[in-house]
């Protein structure tokens, strides 16, 4: 939309305030609330921020102001507050695009892919818990009746949350997201909403606002929402599976589609090369798509009480098989199941695009598909099939990221360092802070053992 079109739409819709919103490395939405009277300043200059205060986005207290410049195509009328609209913003500093801005990083990656003749489209599965704190301050599932040993798809629990889920669905569809399903997921108190695929940047903008919307809705109702990968040790964690397809530059032809696929999945050679790239770079990509210490309590660990982790332990692919990192649902798309709810969607999309296109460029072979249940595969079977394990800690994943020259190149240089090194440094510091904390488990186990 042009600036004049934004002004007219805002006037027609009775908008009184705008949220100028951007994200930092963690994907946390930051915003300023600006009255409609300041619309000219917002559109023409952006909203000013002291970047260091927002989170890891490459600034110090001595840095000049950041400006969050609205992408007018992202104009979103807030469903629960009709006089409020939101813009997804790109960050600039002193008139230049800021290379630490995750949205800018994805925009740059998409532009590079376009020069190669490709565009990435994606949908995602947003999983979250509805929780609360009990009288003792302990985190518990919000619904006290949600105690089934296998609660997935439980119609009774689904209906107890009917008002929340149907309101969320209506809001998503008012925004044009194409919500088509909502369900009770595998853990007590866990839910999932699905919406239609689109251009990667559009989908990532929607993901950020969707998470914000879920948090606000929960807090309005006296509860909390969490997308944390593993909020409860005994329950399945939150994934954020990406459904990926590569299209031509114009976004008209799905390059993953080939009816002559000898495997029967309808996938092209390009799709298989893309899968191979994801497998080749899985160790490094894990640092981006599973970016917290908590992420690795979801990946590759034993089954929770409800029966399965539903997260991959190995870098493998295999048809309509949910124990694989890369699943082929049967349509001309692939699903990456290694991405969790803590991932910054802009950075995660950049990582999978870079890894996949490296596979396409080098015409890599993904190897034979795996049809077995990898959750029950023995260590001997894994070695015999030469399947590599995914990293087991954030420190392990960041070490792989530092060595991956393809991801380093695609994430770009900031002028003082490669962004992937900045990311790895930040995440290693996070790991070390967690690792230095003495937990009650350690005290209980070791206090009088020796």
Mean pLDDT over the full residue set: 96
Helix content range of the residues, please?
25-40%
Query: Largest sheet, described in full?
Result: 9 strands, antiparallel
Any idea what the radius of gyration is?
22 Å
User: According to CATH, what is the topology of the largest domain?
Assistant: Creatine Kinase, Chain A, domain 2
Q: How many DSSP helices? A: 14
What is the CATH architecture term of the largest domain?
2-Layer Sandwich
Assess the beta-strand content as a share of residues.
15-25%
Number of strands: 18
CATH H-level superfamily title of the largest domain: Glutamine synthetase/guanido kinase, catalytic domain
CATH C-level of the largest domain: Alpha Beta
What does this structure look like?
There is one protein chain. This protein is an alpha+beta fold. The protein has two domains: 9-96, Roll (Ubiquitin-like (UB roll)); 109-439, Glutamine synthetase/guanido kinase, catalytic domain (Creatine Kinase, Chain A, domain 2, 2-Layer Sandwich), CATH 3.30.590.10. The protein contains 14 helices and 18 strands. The protein has helices at 3-12, 39-44, 102-115, 155-160, 162-174, 200-220, 269-280, 282-289, 345-362, 379-384, 394-403, 405-411, 419-435, 440-446; strands spanning 17-23, 29-35, 47-49, 66-70, 76-77, 84-93, 96-97, 118-133, 139-141, 179-184, 190-195, 198-199, 224-226, 242-248, 314-315, 326-327, 334-336, 388-389. Strands 8, 9, 10, 11, 12, 13, 14, 16 and 17 form a nine-stranded antiparallel sheet that branches. The termini are far apart.
List keywords for this structure.
Ubiquitin-like (UB roll); nine-stranded antiparallel sheet; 450 residues; 20% strand; Creatine Kinase, Chain A, domain 2; 2 domains; alpha+beta; globular; 18 strands
């Amino acid at each position: 939309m042009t600036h004049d079109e934004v002004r007219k739409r805002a006037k027609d819709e009775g908008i009184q305030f705008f949220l100028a919103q951007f994200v930092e490395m963690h994907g946390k939405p930051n915003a300023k609330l600006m009255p409609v009277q300041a619309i000219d300043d917002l559109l023409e200059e952006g909203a000013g921020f002291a970047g260091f205060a927002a989170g890891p986005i490459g600034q110090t207290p001595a840095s000049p102001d950041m400006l969050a410049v609205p992408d007018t195509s992202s104009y979103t009328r807030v469903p629960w507050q009709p006089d409020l609209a939101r813009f997804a913003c790109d960050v600039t500093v002193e008139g230049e695009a800021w290379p630490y801005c995750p949205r800018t990083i994805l925009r740059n990656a998409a532009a590079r892919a376009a020069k190669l003749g490709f565009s990435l489209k994606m949908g995602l599965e947003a999983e979250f818990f509805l929780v609360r704190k009990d009288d003792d301050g302990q985190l518990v599932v919000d619904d006290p009746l949600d105690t089934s040993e296998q609660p997935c798809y439980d119609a009774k629990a689904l209906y107890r949350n009917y008002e929340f889920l149907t309101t969320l669905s209506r809001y998503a569809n008012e925004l044009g997201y194409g919500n088509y399903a909502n369900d009770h997921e595998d853990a007590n108190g866990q839910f999932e909403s699905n919406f239609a695929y689109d251009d990667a940047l559009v989908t990532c903008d929607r993901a950020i606002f969707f998470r914000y919307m879920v948090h606000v809705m929960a807090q309005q109702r006296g509860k909390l929402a969490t997308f944390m990968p593993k909020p409860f040790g005994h329950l399945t964690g939150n994934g954020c599976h990406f459904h990926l397809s590569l299209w031509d530059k114009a976004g008209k032809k799905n390059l993953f589609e080939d009816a002559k696929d000898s495997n029967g999945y309808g996938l092209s050679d390009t799709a298989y090369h893309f899968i191979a790239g994801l497998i080749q770079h899985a160790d490094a990509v894990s640092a981006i798509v599973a970016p917290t210490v908590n992420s690795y309590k979801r990946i590759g660990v034993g089954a929770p009480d409800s029966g399965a982790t539903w997260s991959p332990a190995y870098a493998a692919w295999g048809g309509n098989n949910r124990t694989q990192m890369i699943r082929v649902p049967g349509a001309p798309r692939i699903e990456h199941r290694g991405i969790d709810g803590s991932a910054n969607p802009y950075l995660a999309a950049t990582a999978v695009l870079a890894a996949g296109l490296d596979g396409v460029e080098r015409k890599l072979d993904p190897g034979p598909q795996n049809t077995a249940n990898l959750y029950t595969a023995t260590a001997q079977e894994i070695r015999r099939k030469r399947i590599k394990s995914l990293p087991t800690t954030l420190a392990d994943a960041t070490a792989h990221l530092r060595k991956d020259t393809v991801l380093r190149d695609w994430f770009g240089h900031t002028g003082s360092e490669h962004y992937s090194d900045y990311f790895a440094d930040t995440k290693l510091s996070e790991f070390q802070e967690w690792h230095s904390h003495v937990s009650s488990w350690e005290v209980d186990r070791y206090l009088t053992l020796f």
